[in-house]
Amino acid sequence: MSSIKEFQVTFDCAEPERVARFWCEVLGYVVAPPPKGFASWEAFDRSRPPERRGAAFACVDPSGAGPRLFFQRVPEGKVVKNRVHLDVRVATGLVGEERLAKLEAECARLVALGAVHVQTLYDGNEACIPMLDIEGNEFCLD
Fold it and tell me: Which of 22, 60, 68, 80 is 20 to 30 Å from 30 by CA-CA measure?
């Protein structure tokens, strides 16, 4: 029998700390401990060459249940649709108007943080809201 593997989700982005802090707010995550051997992320950055400072940041689920999120600076901007995206599950088990209301409330909260509301998909029973994070990465409220 195969053992379950620990994993992290990695985001390519222009501003790792900014995007990480956005996702902390979205998911209720916290800033991850700095890399081993450093008292803070700032100390870690000071140890790196100037061109690599601010190139990485991470956040974690404080309960330990969710995966670590890692953000790394890349030189190119986003140009095509993500092949994988996160579904932020805020209305699990709800249907109809109750589901839609829960999704719309979360959408409004995230738009205030800088997310972009792409569209609302609703068939009278099921609903989801595709969105973009602060650097244009797709995700859905589900």
Answer: 80
In a domain, 14, yes or no: yes
pTM over 0.85: yes
Return the ∠ at Cα 20 (arms to 85 and 16), rounded to 5°: 100
Pick from 79, 91, 77, 74: which is nearest to 140 by CA?
91
CB 71 within 8 A of CB 58: yes
Residue 43 confidence (pLDDT) above 80:
yes
Q: What is Dmax (Cα atoms) for the chain?
A: 55
In a domain, residue 53? The reply is: yes
Cα gap 69→127, rounded to integer Å: 26
**Is residue 23 a part of any domain in this protein?**
yes
Q: Is 81 a domain residue?
A: no
